[in-house]
Amino acid sequence: MNRNMNLAARILGTYAVIYVAYLYLPVLFLPLFSFNDSIYISFPLRGWTLKWYQTMLANEALHRALANSLKVGITTALISTILGILGARAVAQYRLPGQKQVVGVIMLPLVVPEIILAMALLIIILQTVGSRALGLMSITAGHILLCVPFAMVVLISRFEGFDRFLEEASHDLGENAWWTFWRVTFPNVLPGIVASLLLTFTISFDEFIMAFFLGSTDPTLPVFMWNQLRFPKLLPGVLALGACILIASVFIVLLAEWFRRRNAFDGQTGDMIIG
Amino acid sequence: MNSATSKPLDLLRIFLSRHPSLRGYLLLSPTLGLVAALMCIPILAMGVLSFWQQTGHMSFDMSGTLQNYIEALTRDMYRVLFLRSLGISGLTTLATVVMAFPLAYFIAFYVKRHKMVWIILVTLPFWTSYLLRVFAWKVILGYNGAVNSGLMSLGVIDEPLTFLMYNPTAVVITLTHAWATVAILPIYVSLEKIDRSVLEAATDLGDNPFMRFVRVVLPLALPGILAASVLIFIPTVGDYVTPSLVGGSDGYMIANVIQFQFFRGSNWPSGAAISLTSMTIVAALVAVFIWSARHLSGRNS
Q1: Of A24, A33, B26, B143, which has the maximum CB count within 10 A?
Q2: CATH dotted code for A53-261
Q3: Structure-model confidence comparison of residues B203 and A213, the more confident one
Q4: Whether residue B161 sits in one domain with residue B31
Q5: Residue among B34, B38, B209 whose CB faces A121 most closely
Q6: Overall domain count for chain B
Q7: For residue B14, what are the domain limits?
Q8: Is residue B247 part of a domain?
Q9: pLDDT tens by residue, A87-118
Q10: Cβ B234–A29 below 8 Å, yes or no?
């Protein structure tokens, strides 16, 4: 029995290592070739260079795309996190009739194909305001729709994990509802709020479909990258840009995870996606 | 002085304090309202549009017809694309779940310390750019890509393999990798919830490890497997980036034709009808899938 367990552990352990390699290796090809001194993405490697990073940094259009992505990302993060706080608070504090269905509706954007959400938004925007409304505003609207479910998931677990007796104690000691929120509730859920801000920012920053279909001629970073893909001679520059974006995303997500788990009341919730 | 203004407010406050669920809904209303405005209303508008006919640029015959749906369901081209999309997504779902299960099992039952490190390690790629993860496969499978140039410089092949790219297989490979990370968490969570004493009971009652796995672990992990399948199947059916980048014309999926109808084809009602038809087909398939899986497991246990 024990020997069986050991053998199973060894096989599964090996499998796990291979799986993680499979998860990460393909993506590592991007940074690998971004340092390769050749316009073609192929083996054998020609030697190290930083020139693709230099061409990337010198590209004015890229700077504008980056600025656009930052604007959209920050606005999306702020609005979807505020909406997430309101929603999570309502769900955690009250036993609402029909709560499951209502939360289900808010979570729907997670499972409806993005292209359908994007086209539906495109129809309503063009039919009501017209094509002049397309641009960073409409992209932000689309991103908020996609990000609210994630903000809700992150924040609900934070609001539910937090000890409600603290609020009652504050009430009993004479604080009004507003001060109780600021001095008791808010500090306790703050790590969740920071995590939500970081995650929704990353999602928006990396999002392509909404930005592609609801944008004007002024692209965000992923759409800028997509447009570059058509020109093989620009490919190494795209790889350099992609490598930078990957590193930035990984950094932000790890930071978010750190905040999300700080002082978590329930140390073992590993449900980043499904809640 | 301000009694005139505070009186209705006081009344409102008293009313709300007596109806906590109303207060809850008031708090929830901005979030719900936004989702309604950005998703429910647009999709309803799409529904209305799907019964119109395009007569010119941005002008429609609004008399109402089923023609778009009839075309969406009967034209060969659409049928091929529907079936191909469902096939590609089905294979992708199967592959991701089958590949993720042993890993989730390993983390749930064999990792004693640093469980969270493993979880973060396998979920991290989920948050990074989808476009870049798909693009990575274009770099790997392409004509001059990593696989072909690698094999050629090793002398294994003389000229690039053309079957790697621009076909449905490439789409399945890429999607399986891009969505791998979504499958692990739900399965892990359901495995982690299994009461260890149930497993010991099965062993004590004479089940060998294999029987124990089939009769105890698998049925208890089913909710996680179902959640993972649904979370992967639905979005991949409508995926646009992957078929566009690595699919080629043989690997085009339904999202490509939706995009075409709204832009170059400029037949919005048709695009709307195809969108809603595919949503309905997917929802129906998912419902049947969940129902039959629950039904089967209910009979087993």
Answers
A1: A33
A2: 1.10.3720.10
A3: A213
A4: no
A5: B38
A6: 2
A7: 3-49
A8: yes
A9: 998 988 888 888 889 999 999 998 889 999 99
A10: no
